[in-house]
Amino acid sequence: MTITHPGGLHARPCVAIAQMAKRFRSQIRLSNRRQTVNAADVLQVLTLGAPCGSQVTIEAHGPDAVAALEALCGLFADNFGMES
Amino acid sequence: MLQCWLLSNGKLSPAAETEANVRVYVRPDERERRELLDRWQIDEHTLTSSLDPDELARLEFEADHVAMIYKRPRNYSSEERFLFKVSSCGMFVYPDSMLIVLPEDATLFTGRLFARVGSLPELMLKCIFASIHHFLEHLRVINAVSDALEEQINAAMDNKYLLNLFSLEKSLVYYLNAVNSNGKLIERMKLNAPKLGLSGELVELLDDLLIENNQCKEQAEIYSNILAGLMDARVSIVSNNLNLLIKALTVITIAIMLPTFVVSLFSMNVPIPFQEHPWAFWAVLTLSLSSIAMVKLFLWWKRW
């Protein structure tokens, strides 16, 4: 997914991602060029530091992996539920 | 960097420099600073204050414009290690135009709030409104991060997470100070509403701003008090976790010490009893294993 929010992956989107990822039983991981983090751990997601326009890969493994991917991709596409 | 906007017919849209009535200067360079000082007659001290993150919010009436400095949260970046900082923003309102001076790049006019803006004084109030909302959202983030850190601290033995909590506590102090400062600015604006050219509707908006800001302040105070109050307990938890580890290591050391003593006693390079006995090796081994069993029994009896 490409980050389109002007502020990039800053504090508020990170919390939205972690809260969304916690709803699923699957292991969800986010990665950019520098590192891979657990999407359900807000402390790790905050260290990702992806600016606007950067690419983030979402991986999910587990019983509800497809639903988790759909939900997270929707969150990215919706600019993390933030007004733009 | 200069961003130009046109406020016309209740809509704010990007515009060319010649027709813009809202100009946003982000980290103004020397040429832009000269323009602000010479063309727009902005006081040099006020301009410097707009770019200084430690400056307090304030309102000043100049000959041809109103100068205002308000506080806004800085966008969090991963390098800041859980330290949420605040920044200042200068707003200079003229009868037919408005200048905004920012020390760093920020998206100002986003969201429903700016979908319809009637006048420049309304835009000025909405910028402050957006800043209060930004503070509130960051407070929610701080709360979520603090919850996540608490979970980690329950099993932690090093200071890393405690130091992160200290950073959050420090951030809340910065936020509280900034929100308080904005509160004073809004109160001063309310007192000078006629001088600022605020209509009855905008004075109502100013009242809403004051209420929102007070709620934000109270929320920051509550989070700050909770974090500060429970910090000692969290330090004790980390200390206890470390003590438990040391205890486990000590038990292992004692459990190994006794059989080592038995074996070393029978390993002395001098004549020892039973050394010629055919079962001597097995006897020493049995004695050594029994000592392990004894230590284990003792620990079980003591419930360690």
Please explain how this structure is put together:
The complex is a heterodimer of chains A (84) and B (304). With 84 residues, chain A is of the alpha+beta class. Chain A has one domain: HPr-like (Histidine-containing Protein, Chain: A, 2-Layer Sandwich), CATH 3.30.1340. Chain A contains 3 helices and 3 strands. Chain A has a 3-stranded antiparallel sheet with strand order 2-1-3. In chain A, a hairpin with a 4-residue loop joins strand 1 and strand 2. In chain A, helix 1 runs antiparallel to helix 3. The model of chain A has no long low-confidence stretch (mean pLDDT 86). Chain B is an alpha+beta fold and 304 residues long. Chain B folds into 2 domains: 240 residues, 2-Layer Sandwich (Beta Polymerase, domain 2), CATH 3.30.460.20; 60 residues, no CATH class. Helix content of chain B is 57%, strand content 13%. A 7-stranded mixed sheet of chain B has the order 2-1-3-7-6-5-4, sandwiched between helices. In chain B, helix 3 packs antiparallel against helix 4 and helix 6 runs antiparallel to helix 7. The longest helix of chain B has 66 residues. Chain B is rod-shaped and about 110 Å long. The N and C termini of chain B lie far apart (67 Å). At the A-B interface, helix 1 of A face helix 3 of B.
